[in-house]
């Protein structure tokens, strides 16, 4: 305890300013003239401008920390591509470098987890003293999968194998589903979720489970009366036989030949019989006779025709 200036007594977590005094005999360093300053005055790191996108190169490892099932994740790496440079660098991150806190329905804290190959968005921080850089304010995109099974209060999700996050069944509590989906999550539903580490059970779990697609009921599970109602009747088309016992000509038949012969038929004239068409003009016309096939018969002569 060195000397301090007049003012509020410093306590753990306060930001202070002070002078360093080195004793001549012991060569020990002491802080003197300690003074509490406003929060945010002391800056250990500098945040670079802009947000970055990268890929997780190595996942975190978790180890217990203190009591009450607390844990700390460390050792994670994000592959960071520097703009204008071909080579990429690895930025370290830990469990305290994520945006937003994860808690289950009992308000128990959980830790974010990212699997190798997962795309994330983050900021870059540089230590003012050492110049070392790290990733912080990491934003994680939800994972996707299909509900494998559902029990009374919990279930299991089969992750999509192509998202590169987790290749085993993920446990989740039905109470941790999204508010609009609580009590509605069923087997076969496509869902999105946040992959988290449960320090109490030391296992991965799914939080903020949300349905993304609801599959239609299979036809065999529909009631009988509904199947009859929506069934499409089968129609059987048949072609009737013609007078000669066949089903007519094949499509296109008869279009290749044209009728070129000219046939002259005789014309029937009452009282004269059949008269050739070329002699019809020379035949005398009498009352009640036809001049040609288009003439009509007078009503008085209908009974004699």
UniProtKB/TrEMBL annotation:
GO cellular component labels: cytoplasm
InterPro entries, per the entry: NA-bd_OB-fold
Keywords carried by this UniProt record: Cytoplasm, Repeat, RNA-binding
GO molecular function: RNA binding
Domain of life: Eukaryota
Locations listed in the record: Cytoplasm
Protein's UniProt name: CSD domain-containing protein
Organism: Hemiselmis andersenii
Upper taxonomic lineage: Eukaryota, Cryptophyceae, Cryptomonadales, Hemiselmidaceae, Hemiselmis
């Amino acid at each position: 305890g060195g000397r301090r200036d007049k003012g509020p007594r410093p306590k753990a977590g306060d930001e202070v300013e002070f002078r360093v005094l080195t004793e001549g005999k012991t060569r020990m360093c002491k802080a003197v003239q300690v003074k509490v300053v406003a929060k945010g005055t002391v800056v250990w790191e500098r945040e670079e401008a802009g947000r970055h996108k990268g890929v997780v190169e190595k996942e975190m490892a978790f180890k217990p920390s203190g009591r009450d099932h607390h844990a700390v994740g460390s050792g994670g790496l994000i592959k960071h591509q520097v703009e204008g440079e071909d080579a990429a660098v690895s930025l370290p991150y830990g469990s305290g470098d994520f945006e937003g806190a994860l808690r289950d329905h009992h308000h128990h804290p959980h830790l974010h987890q990212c699997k190798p190959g997962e795309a994330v968005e983050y900021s870059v921080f540089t230590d003012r003293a050492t110049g070392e850089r790290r990733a912080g304010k990491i934003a994680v995109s939800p994972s996707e999968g299909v509900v494998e099974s559902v029990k009374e209060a919990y279930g299991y999700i089969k992750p999509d194998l192509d998202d590169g996050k987790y290749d085993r069944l993920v446990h989740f509590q039905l109470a941790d589903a999204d508010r609009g989906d609580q009590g509605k999550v069923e087997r076969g539903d496509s869902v999105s979720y946040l992959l988290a580490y449960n320090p109490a059970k030391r296992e991965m779990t799914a939080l903020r489970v949300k349905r993304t697609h609801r599959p239609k009921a299979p036809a065999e599970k529909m009631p009988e009366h509904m199947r009859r109602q929506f069934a499409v009747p089968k129609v059987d088309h048949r072609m009737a036989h013609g007078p000669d016992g066949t089903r007519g000509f094949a499509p296109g038949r008869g279009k290749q030949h044209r009728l070129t012969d000219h046939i002259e038929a005789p014309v029937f004239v009452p009282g004269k019989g059949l008269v050739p068409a070329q002699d019809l003009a020379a035949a005398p016309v009498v009352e009640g006779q036809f001049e040609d096939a288009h003439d009509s018969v007078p009503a008085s002569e209908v009974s004699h025709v």
